[in-house]
């Protein structure tokens, strides 16, 4: 029926080779279809193989778009989040609970960002950094991923308490609350990233090295862990924003209507960024578990893989969008940025420092010191 010289890429081989069996960016090489097999059992067992499902166009799309996109996100995130840290430490009161969370969010986004250059190069050349770097980069990436989502949720809860329950006792011990909460978030995030540290290893296939999970069960478990955390965050954020919007809409303050617009934007960006990605990694996990229809159909499988590439890039770009939607739209941030630019480019350090000290003296109480 088929000669043994026929080039065959089984579904499991394709998933392994392109990295699309996991949430990590996939390496690509022109040799993607150069694997030969004398054993056709896999070919007949998998419906995708029976159809000779050609996904070379999807692989090439990912090979061109993913590295470029990841480098752009890396540069924007490094610039944006570093600028946030500079503004916070130079002009703001870090005893403010909101500012403490913004500081940690910027740090978690930077931690997430540190893995992107490695993955951009990984997508082009395969993994060339060794086994220890594979484990370390995977751990740092997932720790940044989890801490970013948790801090977004914590910030939402804080906004909820400040708006819906303004008399709650957060102001008097805000530094203590901020330190304890931030430490707890980092501990939980690091513990959640431990499986990635332990179970990632460099593997060689077809002349290319890969940094992947060594066990499919751990890989699927990691996917469900991401889904579970996202669902919890989604439920909490939805509940809090519904309550916040209800409270603010009952207010006739023009300033509070602007806050409604900002909060609505934040919620929409969060949902659009992470929801499609989490749906796609869940659907791909169903394919890993077994041949579940219609995911075994070639058009459906190709559509999911293409959507996976796109949704993953959109989700990863959230680390560079956070400074825009959480900080850059803030009136105080723009004011601080102007002061910083004047100091850097127009040598007006003296007047800037005087304005800065007077501003902090006037706003020495409460959460007004935040960048919102």
TrEMBL record:
Gene Ontology biological-process annotations: calcium-mediated signaling; cell chemotaxis; immune response; positive regulation of cytosolic calcium ion concentration
Positions of transmembrane segments: 68-88, 100-119, 139-163, 175-198, 228-250, 262-286, 306-329
Localization per Swiss-Prot or TrEMBL: Cell membrane
Major location (coarse): membrane
G-protein coupled receptors family 1 profile domain ranges (all copies): 80-326
Molecular-function GO terms, alphabetical: C-C chemokine binding; C-C chemokine receptor activity
Gene3D superfamilies: Rhodopsin 7-helix transmembrane proteins
Protein known as: Chemokine (C motif) receptor 1b, duplicate 1
The species this protein was found in: Paramormyrops kingsleyae
